[in-house]
Fold these 4 entries.
Entry 1:
Amino acid sequence: MELSKFLLPEAVIADAKAGSKKRVLQDAARRAAEVYHLPESKVLAALQARELLGPTGMGNGVAIPHARLPDIEHVCGVFMHLETPVDFSAVDRKPADLIFVLLAPESAVTDHLKSLARVSRTLRNEATCQKLRSTRDAAALYAILLENERSQAA
């Protein structure tokens, strides 16, 4: 599943000023509510519940908080580049500054896993992460995230 199928440009936040994991999840839920017209409180509750199951910090400064909700029709995402990294309990103990929040319908297990795999592949690419960290512009962040997608289509 391609990132462009579940990440809109308006869902990219550059230089987010969240100082804690709780604030990151709150800001992501708020943006998901604004962009995708989702119930903010339910998004936040689902993300917080998922975090209780285990850390979503992937290492190398990346975290992928994710949750499934009954109230949504398709997979959607919010990307945040944090001004100051936040602890997401990654195995390498490095705080995360690149956050990709993924939301999926409760019934869409396969789509959820495919989109999670796509995000993970994208953010495991060291060159991509370096580019993401080098910009403070939301449009540029979106373009960088979709770079691999475009090169594969060419």
Entry 2:
Amino acid sequence: MEMKVVFHVDWDHTDSLLMAIGNMENLLKALSDTQAEIYLVANGSAVKLFRHESASEYASRIERLAEADVHFLMCNNALNKHGIKHEDLLDSCHVVPAGIMEIIRLQAEGCAYVKP
């Protein structure tokens, strides 16, 4: 069985992001023998958490998750609203046009929705 899940962060709260990171790390450990598609979608003010200048305490954990094929998807609408350039983001982040549409698309494709 393949596991598909999307984590959603939308507030500029480090604690929520750290919970999501911990959830994803634990999920990967639990699913060691199972195929998994794991996504994190950040929209709203949460995109601020993924800037190089903001992410020093958890950037290495995000990189390890990305190396394990976790996809970090940033809302372009939110980036524009908060004046954040794509190059300001951690290298493992990918920009999507609209975070909410990405969440809807992923759920339509069978992803479980998790809001830490």
Entry 3:
Amino acid sequence: MMRILITGGAGFIGSHLADALIRQGEDVTIIDDLSTGRMENIAHLTGHPQFHYAIETIGNETVMDRLVSECDIIYHLAAAVGVELIVTRPVEVIERNILGTEAVLKIANRYKKKVFIASTSEIYGKSETVPFREEDDRILGPTTKNRWSYSCSKAIDEFLGLAYWKEKKLPIVIGRFFNTIGPRQTGQYGMVVPRFVRQALLSQPLLVYGDGEQSRCFTSVTDVVRAVIDLMRHPGAVGEIFNIGGSEEITINGLAQRVIAVTQSKSKIRHIPYEEAYESGFEDMRRRVPDISRLAGLTGYRPQIPLDDILSRIAGDLKKNDPEVKESS
């Protein structure tokens, strides 16, 4: 039995990762300050003999020192995420991402514990070289646009992780997530899929930002968690960066239509300008498509869950757990 520490373990991906590891017989401890994570995500695990949690910030060195010293490996998922948060609370995004990762790596190095660092497709900025490969150049907007602060903060996380590996031989694995979706994800911070599904279930207009022709590749959290665990168990992943995502590209207009069809909703699609949704001068990527050949070559990874199935699972979760949706059903 391995002893696992997950930072941000009460979050969307972190809670699914905890589920999967416990099913595989591991002993799991999570730490989360509930700034974006939720107790509801881990409520079903409380009381399980192989699950433990600390409601605390990863900046608390005393608590983190104890948790890291007692674990075998660390999955570092704690971060400030979501476009809405990036635009409205940029100081929090930058400080939480950079200082949080610095704190985790410093203590991990003290005990030489292997670390997975969760990064993001935002790393690629507004590059048009699709599909994105791990070694591609990054193209970003000016520092006057908050939009790009998240990309830069996660790039610093990657630089720092790789520096610890190269200089101090701390085993590091980095995964760049591409539009991970599934049950428990909230639309509170600008995540498009749970927002669309909720709007459809409530027979509200699905609000599409811009012209809706920007495209993404959505991936089930179940597939993503499987990839992350496989990478951490493969010695060849250490010191490397991996895109983790799906292969089916779809426009946001197409996504809205799929959501309406899957939920059998009478909702209509309404387009609104980015400036109305976020801030003046907001920039977005037109296409965000990963090259997952490095991940597939090492672990045999292939996305397994179709988009319509994921949307159905999200709808079922909202019908069960969202009070307003339950009332309207």
Entry 4:
Amino acid sequence: MIKSEDVYRIGIINKPHGVHGELLFTFDDDIFDRVESEYIVCLMDGIMVPFFFEEYRFRSDTTALIKLEGIDTEIQARRMTNIEVYFPKKLAEKIEDDELTWQFFIGFTIIDINKNKIGKITDVDESTINVLFVVEHDGTELLIPAQEDFITVIDRDKKIIYMNLPEGLLELGNT
């Protein structure tokens, strides 16, 4: 059984393309092309289900047409509309830190350099030029800049990011 903590979101299937089961896929992370993977994971009725690629081809920097095994008709493809797509973290761990997207770090814990636990990353806000980690801290939500300058060490095994944050940053503008 695939658990939600073992995958991270890379995109969404938008709609069918043609009549042979091909799907339009919008992605935030092209990891499925950079790491040898035969499958992606889709969230179907609350369950993580693996789907194996037959083929895919890029249409742009953020979209691809994908053909998945077992999806051979337009009717089958229509059932995949608006389905979230995930990628296994264990496969993504094979690439270097500088090749990962920020979404990979959801579920990691942030600890400052003084060994004070700040909290767990629950989401990543990439809606502005400054990417922010959304962190659960004592029942409140903190927004922490995902700046590489602030990150001192990433421990993938323990799922910890050690950061050297400017003094007072945690008190500014967090809700």
